[in-house]
Specification:
The complex is a heterodimer of chains A (114) and B (311). Chain A is α/β, with parallel strands linked by helices. Chain A contains 4 helices and 5 strands; from the N terminus they run βαβαβαββα. Classes of the chains: A alpha/beta (114), B alpha/beta (311).
């Protein structure tokens, strides 16, 4: 389990249910490393500002990560942690690789999820 | 909401958190504001092995302890703050933060740290996370069995190049000068590694590829010859730049964007002090940032006492 204050996606079923539900969500798939920790912090800081978006983390090295976010076509060319995926209406509407600033995350949320 | 503090510390890295620990422990009402994650560049350090008194700790772990210490003494900390406006002139300094309010204080400690330097090339942002990385420990294993480039010539570049040979079959170090800035032992370690080759005196012109990085385009600064080095990964370790651009016009900066200070770390503005990587200094380490934070806090407390100001 990642040491963040975000909600955790800890099973493939949970991920699939989230996709099926069509809810708006941002999922940060990473480790407790230097590039990932700042992104978890950004997401935590934005939870109150975007009440209709759910913010999750997911362990990159778990089988769950392998069977879900890491196998999406949208992350096929990624090779920088963390992989961040934004969901809306059951679809991946944006995906980023590597560290992102608060401004970069807000820009995606405002454009794709609001 | 409007709230008055004795001191506002702008920046939540080791310098800022140390300043907050000293100020709050002196029973001064203290606010720490950072526009990013509390911990600053320390968070970007996988392992800190040379911080006295601590055998081995992650950078994020060390930052978490410092933050806990500051809050335990009563400091209030706001991370990821959207700073809308600030004014350092006059006896009462003012900072406005979106969703938080307006905060004032007679003293401010600027501990805004540094940000990793980038090449500023369009193709750099295009391939970020698709081959371009700034963290060997984070992303090294993506390049197992592949050829990569390390850009830079300081200690970080040389040390990380050596560590990346655990994964990559070939590491080419590309540097803009004909000599390294790294310590001799770091250069020697890299030179004796058979998986590492060197391209000196090179200008990086761009990054090439489709969905993923495929090569790094460089030009020899002496001959003018341009080559594309085949590489699926490029790790950039080209130093840091002071995070002070947003302070321009409010506090004096030198030509490198650093804040000049006197012996007590006072800036050109009465009541404004600077600590850590943002100020003029030669050695930028967690330990020197912590020392700066201590000095700035003690000087700020002395300034408040001499001027008999307290919230």
């Amino acid at each position: 389990m990642l040491d963040t204050n975000l909600k955790h996606i800890d099973s493939v079923e949970k991920f699939n249910d989230l996709v099926k539900s069509g809810r708006k969500a941002a999922i940060v798939c990473g480790r407790m490393g230097p590039m990932c920790i700042p992104v978890y912090g950004v997401m935590e800081s934005l939870e109150a500002k975007y009440p209709d978006v759910e913010f999750f983390d997911m362990e990159f090295d778990s089988p769950i990560g392998m069977k879900t976010i890491r196998s999406l076509p949208e992350t096929r060319s990624f090779n920088g942690l963390p992989f961040t995926v934004y969901l809306r209406d059951g679809k991946v509407v944006a995906a980023t690789s590597s560290i992102q600033s608060k401004a970069q995350v807000k820009a995606i949320l405002d454009e794709k999820l609001v | 909401m409007n709230e008055r503090f004795d001191a506002i510390v702008m920046g939540g890295g080791p310098a800022g958190l140390t300043a907050a620990i000293y100020l709050a422990r002196a029973r001064l009402k203290t606010l720490v504001v950072d526009n990013a994650t509390i911990g600053g560049q320390t968070n970007l350090t996988h392992e800190v092995a040379n911080y006295p008194g601590v055998l081995n700790v992650s950078g994020a772990g060390l930052a978490r302890i410092m933050k806990s210490q500051a809050t335990s003494f009563g400091a209030r900390i706001i991370g990821h703050a959207d700073i809308i406006d600030f004014d350092l002139s006059g006896p009462e300094k003012r900072i406005e933060i979106d969703d938080e309010g307006v905060f004032t204080a007679p003293v401010v400690v600027l501990a805004t740290g540094g940000v990793p330097r980038t090449l500023g090339l369009e193709s750099e942002s295009r391939f970020k996370g698709r081959g371009i990385s700034y963290c060997a420990t984070c992303d090294g294993d993506f390049f197992t069995g592949k050829e990569i480039v390390v850009i830079g010539g300081g200690n970080s570049a040389l040390e990380e190049a050596v560590s990346l040979t655990k994964y990559a079959t070939k590491v080419t170090i590309v540097h803009e000068f004909d000599h390294f800035q790294a310590h001799p032992w770091a250069v020697e370690e890299a030179r004796k590694n058979p998986a590492i080759s060197f391209m000196m005196n090179q200008r990086v012109d761009g990054f090439a590829g489709g969905e993923k990085l495929e090569g790094v385009i460089t030009t020899d600064k002496t001959t003018g010859a341009t080559v594309t080095i085949p590489a699926e990964g490029a790790f950039l370790f080209i130093g840091y730049t002071p995070n002070t651009a947003w302070l321009k016009g409010q506090v004096t900066l030198n030509e490198r964007g650093e804040i000049p200070v006197d012996e007590s770390l006072a800036t050109n503005i009465p009541g404004v002090f600077a600590a850590g990587d943002a100020r003029v200094k030669r050695y930028r380490q967690i330990t020197t940032a912590v020392a700066d934070g201590t000095i700035a806090a003690l000087a700020a407390a002395d300034y408040l006492a001499r001027n008999q100001i307290q919230a």
